[in-house]
Amino acid sequence: MVKYLVVFEKTETGYSAYVPDLPGCIATGKTKSMTEKHIIEAIQFHLEGLKEDKIKIPMSKTEADTFVFALK
Questions:
Q1: Strand 7-10 to strand 26-29: parallel, antiparallel, or no bridges (unpaired)?
Q2: Are 13 and 30 in contact (CB under 8 A)?
Q3: Which sequence spans correspond to the domains of the chain?
Q4: Angstrom distance (rounded) from CA 18 to CA 65
Q5: CATH code for 7-52?
Q6: Pairing status of strand 15-18 against strand 7-10
Q7: pTM: predicted TM-score of the whole model, two decimal places
């Protein structure tokens, strides 16, 4: 089992998502929950493709933190 960071971004028309450790693995949707469903499917499809092509599944290397700043 492997765990991947997923980055969600608000767009003008909804949301987009990508997985930094899986280049090219992206998804979009009108809502965040729809985008979440799509990125899960995209990750599964991406990993299946790597497996079929006998390409090593990348381990997760990406980390994220959120920092809060006071605005003056």
A1: unpaired
A2: yes
A3: 7-52
A4: 16
A5: 3.30.160.250
A6: antiparallel
A7: 0.89
Whose CA is closest to 24, among 39, 9, 11? 39
- DSSP alpha helix (H) spans, the chain: 32-52
Residue from 69, 60, 7 nearest 35 by CA: 7
Structure-block tokens of residue 47: 């990993």
The neighbour count for residue 21, using CB atoms within 10 Å, is 18
Residue 1 clears pLDDT 90, i.e. is over it: no
Cα–Cα distance measured from residue 31 to residue 53, given in angstroms and rounded to the nearest whole number: 33
Rounded distance between C-alpha atoms, residue 13 and residue 68, angstroms: 26
- Going by C-alpha positions, the residue among 1, 2, 27 that lies closest to residue 14 is 27
Q: What is the pLDDT of residues 55-70, one digit of tens each?
A: 999 999 999 999 999 9
